[in-house]
Amino acid sequence: MLVATLSKRLLRVGQAKRCGLSLRSFSDAKDKDLVLTSIDGDTGVATITMNQAPVNSLSLEMCQAITTAIKEVESQPEIQSLVLASSLPGVFCAGLDITELHKPDEKRLTDFWHSFQQIYFDLYGSRLATIAAIAGHAPAAGCMLALSCDYRIMVSGAGSKKPSTIGLNETKLGIVAPSWLGYQYIDTIGQRQAELGLSLGLLHQPEQALAIGLVDELVPREEVLSRAQAEAVKWGKIPAKARLASKMLARKARLDHLAATRKEDNDFFRSFVTNETAQKIIDGYLQSLSKKKS
Ligand SMILES: CCCCCCCCCC/C=C/CC(=O)SCCNC(=O)CCNC(=O)[C@H](O)C(C)(C)COP(=O)(O)OP(=O)(O)OC[C@H]1O[C@@H](n2cnc3c(N)ncnc32)[C@H](O)[C@@H]1OP(=O)(O)O
To answer: Would you indicate the residue range of the signal peptide (predicted)?
Structure first.
């Protein structure tokens, strides 16, 4: 049902094949699926919708599901553009699943960080034009998903009592964003704004995010997805090789650097998270999240 609301003419597998599109999992997805993938048969735009209630937090399985979905879409040579969206009202993605960091099993923690790095490779380095449809909160690694796209459309905060926010808030929690995420921030909003944002752990309301260039457009909530899909059509019409080469001008060195230091980055993350002080911070943060509710 959910998928049917995503776009006017979504294809099932058989229909897609007749149109030369052979994506396997879209539209047949059950609501339990962590991500839903669909293709608009009229425009050829793919939409990957994160669907992990309550907040689309990035668990190991969620990271893997996102990567699988991106790879499935990329394997269709006819598809040039992709929208990344959320099925949850009010939340794009709450960032890393903090429970993955709490009293972790070392093997799973290693796999978890590897899968998070993999999203960076797959989304930031995608051959597709990627548009983020940010109709809700996007803190920390949620912001990273948006930063990894080529264009960001966010829900406007105008008239909202509790506007959505976006940014890298790690320092506020007493933890530190990985350097490759920090550089994505610097590359997008510039050194000064990134220094302020990272140091103070700022979460920006939409109008502020637009002012500093963290997002590219604000639209009313009900228009976020359709506007993102329309933007994806525009990007999909740019000659693909030239578009990808231009994207890589800005991103290749960053991607190559993480590829070369991937294991070190994972080792560092693991020793950081398993440290006693970090575990106290993570424990306290988890408690504060559930207290907020009660
Ligand atoms: C000193 C050294 C330290 C070293 C540590 C090293 C670590 C390195 C890693 C660095 C990288 C970090 C990147 C990250 O992404 S960290 C995660 C940051 N994310 C957040 O801070 C977001 C937290 N969530 C929220 O602010 C809100 O949930 C929301 C997104 C604004 C939505 O608010 P809403 O009111 O709709 O929802 P609730 O807050 O009521 O949440 C509903 C339930 O979901 C649970 N929840 C929320 N966020 C997370 C999460 N990120 N991980 C796991 N679970 C989450 C929340 O507890 C509620 O659960 P409950 O229903 O069971 O109570």
So the answer is: none
Max CA distance (Å), the chain: 57
Count how many residues are written for the chain.
294
Q: Which residues line ligand 1 (CB under 6 A)?
A: 54-55, 57, 90-91, 94-99, 137, 139-141, 169-170, 173-175, 177, 269, 272-273, 277-278, 281, 289-290, 292-293
What is the token pair recorded at 242? 């030239």
How much distance in Å is there from the Cα of 140 to the middle of ligand 1? 9
Nearest atom (ligand 1) to Cα of 277: 1
Q: What is the pLDDT of residues 255-294, one digit of tens each?
A: 999 999 999 999 999 999 999 999 999 999 999 998 776 6
Q: Is 253 exposed, middle or buried (0-12, 13-18, 19+ CB in 10 A)?
A: exposed
The rounded Å distance from CA 286 to ligand 1 centre is 7
DSSP 120: I
The residues that bridge with 101 in the sheet, in sequence order, are none
Determine contact, residues 34/53, Cβ cutoff 8 Å. Answer: no
3-state secondary structure of 251: helix
Looking at residue 26, its pLDDT comes to 47
Nearest CA to ligand 1 atom 50: 97
Atom of ligand 1 minimally distant from the CA of 176: 10
Domains of the chain as residue ranges with CATH: 2-293 (3.90.226.10)
Which string of b and e fits 40-74 if b means at least 16 CB within 10 Å? bbebbbbbbbbbbeebbbbbbebbbbbbbbbebbe
103: exposed, middle or buried (Cβ count in 10 Å: 0-12, 13-18, 19+): exposed
* pTM of the entire predicted model: 0.92
Q: Whose CA is nearest to atom 37 of ligand 1?
A: 55
- Return mean pLDDT, the chain: 91
